[in-house]
Amino acid sequence: MNHPAFQAVCRQVSLGLEAAEPDALGERRPSSIGGETFECMVHDDGSAALLVTYLGTVDTAQAQAVYEQLLLLQLASWNNPDLRFGFDPVTGQVLLCTRLPAPASLEAAPLDSLIRRLLKQLGEWRGTLLHPLVPQKHTQEA
What we know:
Elements: H1 3-16, E1 31-33, E2 36-42, E3 49-58, H2 63-76, E4 84-88, E5 93-100, H3 108-126, E6 133-134
Antiparallel strand pairs: 1-2, 2-3, 3-5, 3-6, 4-5
């Protein structure tokens, strides 16, 4: 998949999900969709892609409990290699990292479905698992 085709797929999905900035996802910039921030990361050679969801920051006083819960969830989901948590040291945010098909195989319907499932799951987690996390708007520095 060439770069314009990847951008077109991401734009189509973003428009359908009423993203605040429909071109951001395809340009590999943070995109606000349904109150959550998503970003596509693509390996330089186009062999792999990742959908990153910014979950928020953790209050220092609750950090150990939150990270233990996230690691326990990741361990309990050992048979789902697409569910991985990360940490962005620049923004201080916890990340949900979901593997995508290689950009050459990326199609709009599965990406749309994935983001909708993640939005639903995050909505459920916000009241429980992610309750201590403080969602923040992720901004790209100019």
